[in-house]
Amino acid sequence: AQAEFVSQELTTVRVQDPRVQNEGSWNSYTNSKAFTAKTSCVRRRYREFVWLRRQLQRNAGLVPVPELPGKSTFFVGSTDEFIEKRRQGLQQFLEKVVQNVVLLSDSRLHLFLQSQLSVPEMEACVQGRGPQSVTQAILHYAMSNCGWVQEEGTRP
User: Fold this and answer.
1) DSSP strand E in 9-149: where?
2) Quick check: 77 and 93 in contact, CB under 8 A?
3) Which contacts qualify for 80-85: CB closer than 8 Å, 24 or more apart?
4) Of 54, 71, 81, 125, which cross-links 77 as Cys (Cβ 3.0–4.6 Å)?
5) Three-class secondary structure of residue 3 per DSSP
6) What are 123-144's pLDDT values in tens digits?
7) Among 84, 65, 18, 77, which Cα is nearest to 45's?
8) Do the bridges between strand 25-31 and strand 2-6 make them parallel or antiparallel, or are there none, so unpaired?
9) Which helix (H) or strand (E) holds 141?
10) Alpha carbons 146 and 84: distance in angstroms, whole number
11) Other CB atoms within 10 A of residue 106 CB
12) Where does the record place the PX domain (predicted)?
């Protein structure tokens, strides 16, 4: 998914531009004062959302983590309908996650939404085994211009 984030009073997360590639990938956009970069746009696969949810639950203790939309391919309807339902489900998942203070404190969430690091790279970064700190990884992605969300009128 593609995640967009813009630092303002309210947190905004959008999941859009789904692309079917095996499990599919999504653009997501988010914005919140809690994040390092002002805005970011990253592409994530469904399996990365599954990893994120598992890690959030592991670290959140008794705090419940929102559910993801199902992975089932047994969907009655068109492929487009299934993709749209999944997109909506992923967006709702992220919207609920970023409204939870406990979940919002997890470094993996910040890397998930503000870097294009792979799952192993995110794990290494969080555990201090990567070449950069969490903040450095996020700022590196933002400064590369890949992570900045462009104005709607200037998007290719």
Assistant:
1) 12-19, 25-31, 39-45
2) no
3) 83/18, 83/20, 83/24, 84/18
4) 81
5) strand
6) 999 999 989 999 888 888 878 8
7) 18
8) parallel
9) helix 134-143
10) 25
11) 20
12) 1-119
Could you identify the residue written with the tokens 């692309």? Answer: 19
CA angle (93 as vertex; 75, 11 as ends), nearest 5? 145
**Which pLDDT tens digit goes with each residue over 50-62?**
999 999 999 888 8
What is the pTM for the complete model shown?
A: 0.76
Q: Measured between alpha carbons, how far is 50 from 67 in angstroms, rounded to an integer?
A: 10
| Residue count of the chain | 156
User: 12 is written with which tokens?
Assistant: 């905004």
Instruction: Look up residue 88 and give its amino acid.
Output: Q
Contact 69, 50 (CB under 8 A): no
SS3 of residue 17 by DSSP: strand
Which amino acid is residue 93, in one-letter code?
Answer: F
For the stretch 66-95, pLDDT in tens is 999 887 666 666 778 888 888 899 999 998
Crossing angle between the packed helical segments 46-60 and 79-98, to the nearest 10 degrees: 30
Domain 11-153 matching CATH 3.30.1520.10: the answer reads yes
Domain boundaries, the chain: 11-153
